[in-house]
Design brief:
about 150 residues; alpha+beta; Pnp Oxidase, Chain A; eight-stranded antiparallel β-sheet; 3 helices
Length: about 150
């Protein structure tokens, strides 16, 4: 991946706060959910309830796909990403703490949330394998398929 494409992907991830993540259900059907996320370079993170269907799906199959799209007024302004990768529950305390800080920086409202009852959550890391960069500002329908370097794996 060249430096310009890398910078474009990071810029889109910096601007957008929600992504659609698709997991695979045990019955083989895909399941798509919108989640808020943070990123560390090209690595993506989101939290979910430990017993949620998407969490159970990830325990069954770590393959995921997702999309992120900047806000646009006209189709010739569309810029976004679709990606495929592997999702894993984060268990390393240092990584959890570092990502927790990223989440507090991006979503300061977290400090104010008090669930009505305790909820067990998990932190999920997505290591993308490939990105499709949509950039309709170049020409309608333009996409570039780029593989993520092995350094991310």
């Amino acid at each position: 991946m060249d430096a310009d494409t890398h910078a474009q992907i990071v810029a889109i991830l910096d601007e957008v706060q929600d992504m659609t993540i698709a997991t695979l259900r045990p019955d083989g059907f895909p399941q798509a959910n919108v989640v808020s996320f943070v990123h560390d370079d090209l690595r993506l993170y989101f939290m979910t309830v430990a017993g949620s269907q998407k969490a159970l799906n990830l325990l069954h199959d770590e393959r995921v796909s997702g999309t992120v799209t900047r806000t646009y007024d006209s189709w010739d302004e569309i810029e976004g990403l679709s990606f495929a990768g592997h999702a894993r529950v984060v268990t390393d305390a240092a990584e959890i703490a570092r990502v927790g800080e990223l989440m507090l920086d991006r979503f300061p409202q977290i400090r104010e949330i008090e669930p009505p009852e305790p909820v067990e959550t998990i932190l999920v890391r997505v290591d993308p394998v490939v990105f499709s960069v949509l950039d309709y500002t170049q020409v309608f329908g333009h996409t570039d398929l780029v593989e993520v370097q092995p350094r991310l794996a």
